[in-house]
Write a structure and sequence with these properties.
The protein has 294 residues and is mainly α. It has ten helices and no strands. α1 runs antiparallel to α3 and α4 crosses α5. The longest helix has 32 residues. The radius of gyration is 19 Å and the shape is globular.
C-alpha cells in the first residue's frame, strides 16, 4: 500500500511542479502547454474578432468567461488532481502483470518519425470519435456531456467546456490507443497535441471555415456547428461527431450539413435544466441518470 501512496503523491506534486515551471517559462517552449494554450486561444479569438461568421454575436459572447475558466480547469487543474490516480492505476496493472506491452498490436518504433506522428494522430482521433459517440448514445454518459452541449453561443473557448467526468472516460481509452501502438508516444507528439488544440478551437470558433475539398478529411466550424444544433434529424441522437478529423463521419454516415448560414439554434431540448454556474455544473449528473438524446 505504501508504494501506491508514494506513487500518488509523487505524481501529483510532479504535475504541480511541471505546471508551475511552465507558467514561469522554465520548460521548453514546444512542450509548454500552458502558454501554448493561451497563444492558440488568442490567435483564434483574434480571427473571431476580425472575421466573425455571426456578426451579431458579441466579442465577449454569452458564457465567454465561464468557458475561459473551463479551459484552464480541464486542461491543467483537473489534470493535476487526477494524475496521481492514473499513476496508481498504472501500478495496479503492473502488479497484475499487465504493462504497456501487453496489448501491442503495431510496433511503430522503427518507422520514420513523420509516419509515427500521422498514425499516432489518426488512431487517437478515431478513439476520441468513437468515445464521442458513446457520450451521446448512452444515458449515463450523456448526462455529463450535456454540459458541453449547454453552450448557446459558439466561440473558441467552448472547445474545453466539458464535465470533468469526460476525462475519466477519454483518458483511459486514449491510453489504450497508445498501448496498441507499442505503448509509446513519439518524441515529437507535442506537434499532434498542439494541432488538436488548434483544430478543436477552430471547430468551435465564430469563423466560417470549411477547408474546401479538405472538409471531407478535416473537421471545421460549419460542420461542428451542426453537432451542437438544437434540432437534429429525426431519429438521430447526434451528428458530426468528429474531433479533429471529419473523415470518420463521412465513412460511417454520421455527417450532416444541410446549410451553412450559421444562424441555427444551439443546445438540446431540456437544456434549461443545466445549471448556469461552474460549481453546480461540475457536480451535475452525479445523481439521477439522464436520458440519451433522441
Amino acid at each position: 500500500m505504501e508504494h501506491y501512496i508514494n506513487a500518488f503523491t509523487d505524481s501529483f506534486w510532479g504535475s504541480v511542479d511541471w505546471t508551475w515551471k511552465s507558467i514561469l517559462f522554465q520548460v521548453p517552449w514546444y512542450i509548454n502547454y500552458f502558454w501554448g494554450l493561451i497563444l492558440i486561444s488568442l490567435l483564434i479569438w483574434g480571427l473571431e474578432i476580425y472575421f466573425p461568421w455571426r456578426k451579431q454575436q458579441s466579442i465577449f459572447r454569452k458564457d465567454f468567461w465561464l468557458d475561459g475558466f473551463y479551459m484552464f480547469f480541464n486542461f491543467f487543474i483537473f489534470s493535476i488532481v487526477i494524475s496521481g490516480f492514473y499513476k496508481v492505476l498504472e501500478l495496479g496493472f503492473a502488479d497484475l502483470g499487465l504493462s504497456s506491452k501487453s496489448l501491442v498490436m503495431v510496433d511503430m518504433s522503427g518507422l520514420p518519425l513523420w509516419i509515427q506522428l500521422i498514425v499516432f494522430f489518426v488512431v487517437l482521433d478515431f478513439v476520441q470519435w468513437f468515445t464521442h459517440i458513446l457520450l451521446h448514445r448512452y444515458p449515463f454518459l450523456w448526462k455529463f456531456h450535456k454540459i458541453h452541449h449547454s453552450v448557446k453561443e459558439m466561440g473558441f473557448a467552448a472547445h474545453l467546456r466539458y464535465h470533468w467526468m469526460e476525462n475519466i472516460l477519454y483518458k483511459p481509452l486514449k491510453t489504450l490507443g497508445v498501448m496498441v501502438l507499442g505503448g509509446f508516444e513519439p518524441e515529437q507528439a507535442y506537434i499532434v497535441h498542439f494541432l488538436a488544440i488548434a483544430i478543436g478551437h477552430l471547430n468551435h470558433a465564430n469563423i466560417k471555415l470549411s477547408w474546401g475539398p479538405l472538409k471531407y478529411l478535416i473537421n471545421n466550424p460549419v460542420m461542428h456547428l451542426y453537432h451542437h444544433a438544437y434540432e437534429l434529424p429525426e431519429g438521430k441522437y447526434g451528428v458530426n461527431f468528429g474531433i479533429s478529423l471529419s473523415v470518420w463521419d463521412y465513412l460511417f454516415g454520421t455527417n450532416y450539413i444541410p446549410e451553412d448560414s450559421g444562424t441555427i439554434g444551439l443546445g438540446f431540448p431540456g437544456d434549461e435544466e443545466v445549471p448556469k454556474g461552474f460549481f453546480r455544473q461540475i457536480i451535475y449528473g452525479l445523481g439521477k441518470w439522464g436520458k440519451a438524446r433522441s
